Amino acid sequence: MTMITEIELQQLLKENEELKSRLNLLEVKYQIKDEIPTYCFSQIGFSDLKKIVEIKPKLNYHKFDDWFNDENIKLDEEDIHFLKNLIDNNIFYLENYKEEDLKVKFITPILNRINFVNIDKEIRDFYDENLCYQTEQFILNGEADFVVAKGYFFSEQPYFFIQEFKKSKAAKDPEPQLLAELIAAIELNRFTTIKGAFIIGAIWNFVLLEKLGTNKYQYFVSRNYDSTDLEKLKSIYKNLLFVKKEIFGYDMESS
After folding, report:
1. Mean pLDDT of the chain
2. Which residues pair with 196 in a beta bridge?
3. What does the alpha-carbon distance between residue 58 and residue 220 come to, in Å, rounded to a whole number?
4. More exposed terminus of the chain, fewer Cβ within 10 Å: N or C?
5. Cβ–Cβ contacts within 10 Å for residue 53, how many?
6. Domain containing residue 48: CATH number
7. Are residues 223 and 122 part of one domain?
8. SS3 helix, strand, coil % of the chain, rounded to 5?
9. Residues in CB range of 126: below 8 A, 6 or more apart
């Protein structure tokens, strides 16, 4: 049996430690190289969005004409009575509602009455639904407050988002959060345009996002809709009915 001296043993141990150090350096190097920045929908801001994509706001209210002015979308007396009662029952509390109060007592009843569910077309609405979009440069993920999508038990193809049931803009700004979700959806679906809305207290704003090129977008924000005003709430309701009509009209075979 070959015997090694104490000096040779110490040399082998030293070489082994040096090898470990080199391997650790390589591991750290490639981890840093391969690490992709991740942005959560609930935390993302405009400064974050502008780091990863080119996105610009545009002012053109006529972009919403087809959406907001469909003469075939009409409300009946029961719809109007429902909306009037919703305002009457909540207006005293609305500005002081917590986020969950606002969601459960005022917003969800509207969405439930719209009824975005079509079993035959595999479409339904989801709350706090997971969504993830990954490129070689960044990852967008998190939970969408509200999304209408294809899928029975989880969102397979998202079509329309509402973000974020917030009491006020003093909390996290819902606008960039919505835009991040729309970017994820437009890319996952390979669409060129997609619709959404964000809510701050009683105020609704509708949004159109358009894809212009690789990681390049423009978006349009509607005028404010004050949901405590019956005429404005009727318009909100009609705008949502149009979204339902549009989504249910998609050819699911080719989408």
Report:
1. 88
2. 161, 207
3. 5
4. N
5. 19
6. 3.90.1570
7. yes
8. 45, 25, 30
9. 144, 146, 147, 148, 149, 151, 154, 155
Angstrom CA distances, 90 to 4, 37, 64, 116, 230, stand at: 87, 42, 29, 24, 13
Report d(CA 213, CA 114) in Å as an integer: 34
* Token pair belonging to 203: 């105020």
Q: Is the sign of the CA dihedral 185, 187, 192, 198 positive or negative?
A: positive
Give how many domains the chain has, as a whole number: 2
Please choose, from the candidates 241, 36, 45, 254, the residue with its C-alpha nearest in 3D space to the C-alpha of residue 157: 254
Domain that holds residue 14: 1-35
In order, the DSSP letters of 106-171 are IIHHHHHHH---BTTTTEEEEEEEEEEEE-SS-EEEEEEEEEEEE-SSS-SEEEEEEEEEES-TTS
- What digits encode the pLDDT tens for the residues 209-254? 999 999 999 999 999 999 999 999 999 999 999 999 999 997 544 4
pLDDT tens digits for range 44-80: 999 999 999 999 999 999 999 999 999 999 999 999 9
Closest CA to 203 of 225, 220, 222: 225
CB proximity list for 129: less than 8 A, separation 6 or greater:
143, 144, 147, 149, 154, 155, 158
CA distances from 218 to 60, 140, 157 (A): 11, 18, 22
